[in-house]
Amino acid sequence: MTYLRIHRQSSERTVEQYAFHLSELLRYLEPELEVFEDGPTDFRLAFYRIPKTAEKKAEKTRVRNFLLTQSRATSENVSMADLDGFRVFLVQKGLSVGTANAYMVSIRSFLKFLKKRGESSIDPTAVELAKRRDRHVTFLDATEIERLFETASGDDIRDKRDLAILECVYSTGLRISELTSLDRSRINFETREFAVRGKGGKIRVVYLTERAAKRISEYLEAREDAFEPLFIRHNFDSKNLFVTPKNEEKRPLSDEDVRLTRNFITTMVSKRALQAGIVKDVSAHTLRHSFATTLLTNGADIRAIQELLGHSSITTTQVYTHVTNPRLKEIHGRFHSGG
C-alpha cells in the first residue's frame, strides 16, 4: 500500500480497492480469518471505504494487523490453482466478469511488486484476465439531458448545487472522483477551464461551457460559507456547525466534513433521472458517457475525446464509436436505397 501511494502515486480510492481485493483473497485462502478473537468484523467496511473517523481508521489498522500476524499464506505457497479457484469463487458469488477482472488486476499488480523485490511468487504475466463482452454504454440524448436538468431548476440552494453538478459533469466529462475533489479556487471562470488530476496522477485540462460556468457561478453566489470544496452538503447552520438529525451536540465543520462523496452524487443523479421520467439505468457516470457521445456525434476527433476524458489508451475511448457513429449512418443513407 505504501508503494502504491509513494511510487505509483495511486489515488486513495485505488489503494483502498487494492487492499480490499487482497484481503478478500486472504479470506478465500484462509476462511478462519473471518472471525476475530473478540467477534466478527465487517471486512468491507474496514477495507473498502476511505475512513472519515478515528474509529474507522483504528478498525482498518486492527484488521490489517490481524491479517499480517495470523495469516499463514506466503508468496511462495500460493499457487496458480489457488488464484484460479479464487476467480471461480468470485463468479459464483455473482460478480460480473469485469468486477472479477478488477480483483485479478489488483493481484497481478501485487505479484509485479513482489517480483521487483526479488520475492518468489507466481509470474504476474501468467495471471490472465477473462474475456468479456463488449462494454455496454448508457448515455442520454439531448432531450433527456434537458429533462434531467429541468428537475433541478428551483431556487433552493440544493437545486442550484445539483444543477451545477449536472452541468459540470456533462460539460467536462469528469470522473466522479475527480468532481468530488474539486475546490473552488481551481476554477478559472474567465477562461472557463481548470486542471484535474486523473487516474495514475495524470493532469489534464477540462473546459466548461458558458452555461455550465454560469450555473456554477450562480451556485457559489448563493452560498454564504467559506468552505473550499466546490460542491458541498448543506445540512449545517449559519455558523458552520454540523446539524445532526437527532440534535446532538453541534461541532465546527472542516472542508472534508462538507465535501460531497461519490455515493452522494451517484444517488442524486439517479434520483433526478427518476424525477425526469428517464427509464434508463442512469448513474453519475452516465453523464460522462453522454459528454463523450455528444462530442462524437457532433464530429469530434476520437483522439481529442481521449484527451478530454483522460483515457490512457485509445482502446478505452473507442467503445463510444460502437454506440454512435454519424459517418456510418451517413454512408448507410447514401448507399442503401432500401429496395
Description:
The chain is mainly alpha-helical and about 350 residues long. The protein has two domains: about 1-125, no CATH class; about 140-330, hpI Integrase, Chain A, CATH 1.10.443. The chain has 17 helices and four strands. The strands form two sheets. A two-stranded antiparallel ribbon has the order 1-2. A two-stranded antiparallel ribbon has the order 3-4. β3 (about 195) and β4 (about 205) form a beta hairpin. α8 (about 155-170) runs antiparallel to α10. It is globular, with a radius of gyration of 23 Å. Residues about 35-40 and about 45-50 have low confidence and may be disordered.
Note the overall shape: globular
* Order of adjacent strands in the largest pleated sheet: 1-2
**Radius of gyration based on Cα positions:** 23 Å
Beta-strand level of the residues, as a percent range? under 5%
Structural class estimated from helices and strands: mainly alpha
Known CATH architecture of the largest domain: Orthogonal Bundle
Intertermini distance: 63 Å
Q: Would you identify the CATH H-level superfamily of the largest domain?
A: Intergrase catalytic core
List the helices and strands and how they pair.
Layout lengths: L1 H5 L5 H18 L5 E2 L2 E2 L2 H6 L5 H17 L9 H13 L4 H20 L25 H9 L6 H16 L3 H5 L12 E5 L5 E5 L2 H13 L32 H4 L3 H14 L8 H14 L4 H8 L4 H4 L1 H5 L2 H10 L4
Antiparallel strand pairs: 1-2, 3-4
Helix pairs in contact: 2-6, 5-6, 8-10, 8-13
